[in-house]
Specification:
Largest sheet: 5 strands, mixed
Strand content: 25-35%
CATH topology of the largest domain: Nucleotidyltransferase, domain 5
Radius of gyration: 21 Å
Order of helices and strands: HEEEEEHEEEHEHEHEEEHEHEEHHEHEH
Number of domains: 2
Shape: flat
Number of strands: 18
Mean pLDDT: 89
Low-confidence stretches: 343-350
Number of helices: 11
Distance between the termini: 11 Å
Structural class: alpha+beta
Helix content: 25-40%
């Protein structure tokens, strides 16, 4: 009875704890936080100077003793203490929106498909230490499918490709469960690295991650564009050590990212090959759905459609799909508890 009372008055939240971006959904309110997963730390004192948007502004622009870092790598925690502080920042920011502080919240956290039990425990421990009363985990492809409004509890097949910053999850879902899936550490961040490596190899130009991402968004594509595009790429010449600007084309950037994009295509094809024929028939009718920020790459849907011969579409607002899906479970946790993974032995689902 006491637990039911707490559930009614607590400010429960769902978190998409992404490698590049974190989003927070508050029960009965919707998405209230959408910030980069970046933390700025003073290495001399160990003090955390900024989290989220303010920390991202410092990337590549800080003195040597101040480091702007991402505490998650490939969708899993690489720095436990910093992740805990980031989660604490998000939870406290949510509670500051209220005039009266309630009890500690129940928290649902999105995780990549197939991470280890140790990695799951790290997420649970960090979230609980950050102020959660109970912690539940939901696999990101399942959450993305729910956020895409797929009928995942029906007996038909649903195919979701969730491309984030650190991981790409490919899954076939039916009857509220994952039938076959795979997760690969190739996503938006890897494409940025491809562009950084291209600039060094082709032009002896050292560029930062922010510059690479801006170029990717502006002229990057997985499929040839209708119009040729060029943009100036600014960085430091590795030979002279001086600033330099070169013009790069969309075709050059496309070629730089081809190898990584091909790995995503192979993962999709392999998942299709492992799908039972009855479900594959449903998927050929419904199509492949793309979610996550990485799916916004121009022409990716066209390339997947050509490679698989299955209709492919980008869902509406793909960046928020995971947190919206986790939020739907949060709003109806008693009815949808089977979708959650066995995450926290000390937090039974009630």
């Amino acid at each position: 009875m006491f637990d039911n009372l707490l559930s009614k008055i607590s400010h429960d939240i769902a978190i998409d704890l992404g490698t590049a971006t974190s989003l927070v959904y508050v029960k009965e309110q919707g998405i209230v936080i959408h910030e980069p997963s970046v933390v700025a730390i003073n290495q001399k004192t160990g003090q955390i100077l900024a989290i989220g948007e303010e920390a991202k502004k410092m990337v590549g622009r800080t003195p040597a003793h101040i480091v702007a870092t991402r505490p998650l790598v490939n969708g899993v925690i690489s720095d436990f203490e910093v992740t805990e502080q980031m989660l604490k920042y998000f939870i406290e920011k949510v509670h500051k929106r209220r005039f009266i502080l309630g009890p500690r919240p129940r928290v649902i956290v999105g995780i990549p498909y197939g991470i280890t039990e140790v990695e799951k425990k790290a997420v649970c421990d960090a979230t609980r230490n950050a102020g959660a009363r109970e912690v539940f985990l939901i696999e990101e492809p399942m959450a993305a499918a729910m956020g895409s409004r797929m009928s995942i509890q029906d007996p038909g097949g649903n195919f979701i490709v969730d491309i984030g910053g650190g991981t790409t999850d490919v899954a076939v879902i039916s009857l509220g469960g994952i039938v076959t899936a795979r997760s690969l550490k190739v996503a938006g961040d890897r494409l940025n690295e491809d562009i950084i490596n291209f600039a060094q190899e082709e032009y002896n130009l050292l560029i930062g991650e922010r510059t690479a991402e801006e170029i990717k968004i502006a002229i990057g594509s997985a499929y040839p564009l209708n119009e040729r595009k060029e943009l100036p790429l600014r960085g430091r010449n590795l030979v002279t050590g001086l600033p330099e600007e070169v013009l790069v084309s969309d075709l050059e950037i496309k070629k730089a990212m081809e190898k990584s994009i091909k790995q995503i295509i192979i993962a999709i094809k392999t998942t299709i090959e492992e799908t039972p024929p009855e479900l594959l028939s449903d998927i050929m009718s419904k199509g492949i759905f793309l979610a996550g920020g990485g799916s916004l790459l121009k022409g990716l849907d066209i390339l997947i459609r050509e490679e698989t011969r299955i209709p492919t579409r980008l869902i509406e607002d793909p960046v928020t799909a995971v947190v919206r899906g986790a939020g739907m479970v949060l709003e109806n946790i008693d009815e949808l508890h089977e979708i959650l993974t066995d995450a926290d032995e000390t937090s039974p689902i009630r």
